[in-house]
From TrEMBL:
This is Dps family protein. Belongs to the Dps family. PANTHER family: GENERAL STRESS PROTEIN 20U. Pfam families: Ferritin. Residues 19-157 form the Ferritin/DPS domain. It comes from the Bacteria. InterPro entries: DPS_DNA-bd, DPS_DNA-bd_CS, Ferritin-like, Ferritin-like_SF, Ferritin_DPS_dom. Gene3D superfamilies: 1.20.1260.10. The lineage of its organism: Bacteria, Pseudomonadati, Bacteroidota, Flavobacteriia, Flavobacteriales. SUPFAM superfamilies: Ferritin-like.
Amino acid sequence: MTLNSIGLNTEMTKELANDLNTLLANFQIYYQNLRGIHWNIKGKRFFDLHVKFEELYTDANVKVDEIAERILTLGVTPLHTFEDYTNAAKVPVGKNISQDEKAVNLIVESLTELLKIERAILDKSDDANDEGTNSMMSDFITEQEKTVWMMKAWLGETV
């Protein structure tokens, strides 16, 4: 077993970095969805949702940077083209969404997909003894589960 300069198995970190690239691509699509619904939301809930969507896309932008930097830390180049993002995306693409419930449902669907990817990375990072990636995924999961709960509550639904 070959260890890299941060003490992790080189082969396992390449696999984790590839999974993180998938997460990065999906986060970029999620981010663009949030920008779109922020710009296009209409109706009586405009003021509340416009602000909330900005909060979410600002947070997503920070996470995109954190994921890319973690990929670099693991010795791999992060994906950085829209073609790469769309090819790897599992998150639904929201186009021309201006209705409040459709926008919130898009967020829930997107976070549900992101959580699946993050849980798989969490399992692999644990096996690889990669505390940096593990901690990042754990933090993302905790925060996104709460966001799903809040969005579902707004929709009048349960998790």
